[in-house]
Write a structure and sequence with these properties.
The complex is a heterodimer. Chain A is 39% helix and 15% strand. Chain A is an alpha/beta fold. Chain A folds into three domains: 35 residues, no CATH class; 165 residues, D-Maltodextrin-Binding Protein, domain 2, CATH 3.40.190; 142 residues, 3-Layer(aba) Sandwich (D-Maltodextrin-Binding Protein, domain 2), CATH 3.40.190. In chain A, helix 1 packs parallel to helix 6, helix 9 packs across helix 18 and helix 10 runs parallel beside helix 18. Chain B is mostly helical. Chain B contains 14 helices and two strands. A two-stranded antiparallel sheet of chain B has the order 1-2. In chain B, strand 1 and strand 2 form a beta hairpin. Classes of the chains: A alpha/beta, B mainly alpha. At the A-B interface, helix 1, helix 2, strand 1, helix 6 and strand 7 of A face helix 2, strand 1, strand 2, helix 6 and helix 12 of B.
Chain lengths: 419, 305
């Protein structure tokens, strides 16, 4: 879920706080400048200052950040706090309390400071990157990132703590095959999935009375002016690749360029390239057919919009994962690991899933939701507990090898949206 | 003896007197100058410097005096940044004009036609929408103006518009959002300017056989010019760079420079491109405002404060 612009309520007050902080903290030169200016030195030091004006990259202190993780985990001591950063509306909530977190505190004595501060991957990454690059604590032990460029960047820059799987027996036992050993993090070295979701097509059966089966339906002139697409390059590009029969995971830059032809042809029909607001536009009738995330459609169905329908296109769909990671500088890494392990049980995953309704990384949670929570709507939903036949139609995102590849991808798809 | 002593004392005291006579304005403006330096000039300068750097977010950015980027943005880009600049200027300009047209009668009414005890309540009403975050208010407009929203369904019901009529996603929706979000910034300065006008001047104009229209055009309007001037500055600058209205109310063809800067910085992590675009935007706005101030500016703008 990586939307470009201001998410829902993210940028209150005009400037995005994360952007503001990124602008004020990332750039070391300001501090240098004040020091230099204070001494009142002349042109010579000005040129020296200008030369030092670079912005340190995320890989700048790479060597210093290499750690022997076995020793690291051996040295850790138990703490009784966990600072958990997550997305809004992404955990079970009843009257401002979360049963899953309370059960965790009761079982382990660890108090959880749960903050729904992540509006989007990019701004949150921009918020914590300066601290991570400086080797300082971000104030969060656990954060949730979608597999995508930011997660790759976190892994490549050694910004994450490698997980000690000897302390994650429940993951080994209960995790769905869909979230094991993913292409973006082989062997789950740094991440375990919080929620999985699918990107397919959703449409409003009030306005479209025929079956929607394919990406080509997004380019049907009959829906002109009522087609929604995502403003996220990765989602947009992946859909175009699937449309032309290419698996995004194994695609090449040549395919990327080729796939923009379809997007450009389709563009005159598109009413907008949306961020998370695409679901409101679908609910409000602005769009009749749109690229969509499974969980949003499921939640909309439950909250007064039964006419919306999510379909898996016959060309395939994207499966993405929001992943729990332990950030470097975390003060309570053992608590974070403890929570990951605690989450990967049918009971806790079931409690969370019954509220969140994306796709559950713990298949056995279905029985818990069906028998204990008595909620067959969620338990029997093919979106929350996908059948193996859907699995075979689901494809992962392309994993960027480095920034240059990511930029090439952006340069390919930006001109479609930005026009 | 005393003479000599006093002369000796008088010398430094004259200097001190000179300093104490001439320095207060400088000392008093220190805070303002510091503020401008810290939050305007240094960011502007560092923006310019970052725009001249090359690199990427992983390896870092280094200053290479890459002036080339400015020509790249305008000439050799797959992305039509020039269009976004022009589009943003058109949106900002139209929003400013609509703001004047709506705000002037409002301010005139509050300043001249309302009894004293209602004035502050009415001004509060102008400001009351600021109690809610403007992103949320804008998003609510997206809800109200939606194709199945209350406005369009009513219009359709009355057969005033056709089946394919829509508001969201059009330039009109974006400009409307800009006007709605910035109206108070136009009302308040105009109100302050009008409020200051001595009513006896208007009487004098009437005594000199000016009709209502002439009173307005020859006295009220010129006397409130400073208010319009200040309002235009506030509204134009904030609407040209605004990414929120175009993102929430706009569609596939309303992409503005504010969105381009945001996407370049956050999504593409091209800090140099984002900085170059901001620098161009700042320079462009600065130039427009400078010309505008030379042509329409008034000496009595300080009367407003």
């Amino acid at each position: 879920m990586t939307k470009g612009s201001i998410g829902q309520g993210a940028g209150a007050g005009g400037i995005n706080p994360a952007l503001l902080r990124g602008l004020t903290q990332r750039r070391m030169p300001r501090r240098d400048f004040l020091g230099v200016a204070g001494k009142g030195v002349g042109l010579l030091s000005l040129s020296a200052f200008l030369a030092s004006c670079g912005i340190a990259g995320s890989a700048s202190r790479d060597a210093q950040r290499r750690v022997d993780w076995q020793t690291f985990w051996a040295q850790q001591k138990k703490t009784d706090v966990l600072d958990f950063a997550n997305w809004p509306l992404y955990i079970d909530t009843e009257h401002g309390k979360s049963e899953s977190l309370e059960l965790f505190t009761r079982a382990t004595g660890i108090k959880v400071n749960y903050e729904a501060v992540i509006q989007n991957n990019e701004p949150f990454y921009a918020t914590i990157e300066p601290q991570l690059a400086a080797g300082e604590s971000t104030g969060y032990d656990l954060a949730v990132f979608t597999n995508g460029w930011n997660l790759t960047q976190l892994i490549d820059s050694n910004f994450l703590v490698a997980l000690d799987h000897s302390k994650l027996p429940n993951f080994a036992r209960y995790a769905s095959d869909l979230v094991r050993n993913p292409n973006y993090d082989p062997g789950n070295q740094y991440s375990v999935t919080w929620q999985t979701g699918f990107t397919g097509i959703a449409y409003n059966t009030k306005y479209i009375d025929r079956e929607i089966t394919s990406f080509d339906d997004l380019a049907d002139p009959a829906f002109s002016g009522h087609v929604g697409m995502m403003n996220d390059n990765v989602e947009l590009g992946s859909a175009a690749l699937l449309q032309m029969g290419v698996n995004p995971e194994t695609s090449t830059p040549k395919d990327w360029v080729e796939s923009t032809k379809w997007l450009k042809k389709q563009r005159p029909l598109v009413s907008g390239y949306y961020d998370q607001s695409y679901i409101q536009h679908l609910e409000n009738g602005d769009t009749w057919i749109t690229q969509a995330w499974s969980g949003d459609v499921f939640q909309a169905n439950q909250s007064g919009y039964p006419h919306l329908k999510f379909v898996v296109p016959k060309e395939g769909q994207i499966v993405w994962h929001d992943n729990m990671v332990i950030l470097r500088g975390a003060r309570n890494p053992l608590s974070a690991l403890e929570w990951m392990n605690f989450y990967y049980t049918p009971k806790i995953a079931g409690i969370v899933e019954d509220w969140v309704n994306y796709a559950c990384p713990v298949p056995d949670a279905r029985q818990y939701i069906l028998n204990v929570l008595d909620d067959p709507t969620v338990a029997n939903s093919p979106l929350v507990f996908p059948s193996p036949s859907i699995d075979s139609l689901s494809h992962e995102y392309y994993v960027y090898k480095d920034y240059d590849e990511y930029q090439l991808w952006n340069d390919t798809y930006n001109p479609v949206i930005e026009s | 003896m005393t003479n000599v002593a006093t002369t000796r004392v008088r010398e430094p005291s004259r200097l001190r007197r000179w300093v104490s006579r001439h320095s207060p304005p400088y000392v008093l403006s220190l805070l303002g100058v510091g503020w401008m330096l810290l939050f305007f000039l240094i960011p502007l300068g560092s923006g310019l410097i970052v725009s001249l750097e090359t690199g990427n977010p992983v390896r870092g950015y280094n200053l290479t005096w890459n002036w080339h980027i400015y020509s790249q943005i305008f000439v050799h880009s797959d992305i039509p940044y020039t269009t976004f600049f022009i589009r943003s200027l058109i949106y900002g300009g139209s929003a400013t004009i609509f703001c004047i047209l709506i705000a002037y009668p409002m301010a005139y009414f509050i300043a001249f036609r309302v009894s004293e005890r209602w004035k502050s309540s009415l001004l509060l009403l102008v400001l009351i929408s600021f109690f809610v975050s403007f992103v949320i208010r804008t998003d609510m407009w997206a809800f109200v103006l939606a194709d199945q929203g209350i406005v369009i369904t009513t219009l359709r019901h009355l057969h005033l518009v056709g089946k394919n009529f829509h508001i969201l996603g059009t330039a009109g929706a974006v400009i409307g959002g800009d006007v709605y979000n910035n109206l108070a910034f136009m009302v308040l300065p105009i109100y302050v300017a009008l409020e200051k006008i001595d009513l006896r001047i208007l009487e004098a104009a009437r005594d000199l056989y000016a009709n209502t229209r002439q009173v307005f055009l020859r006295t009220v309007l010129p006397l409130s010019r400073a208010g319009i001037f200040a309002g235009v500055l506030l509204v134009f600058i904030s609407t040209v760079g605004d990414p929120v209205n175009s993102a929430l109310l706009g569609g596939a063809n309303t992409y503005t420079i504010g969105q381009a800067i945001q996407d370049a910085y956050l999504n593409n992590q091209q800090f140099n491109v984002a900085a170059a675009l901001s620098t161009i935007l700042m320079a462009m706005l600065g130039l427009i405002m400078f010309v505008y101030a030379r042509v329409f500016g008034t000496e009595n703008i300080e009367n407003l404060v």
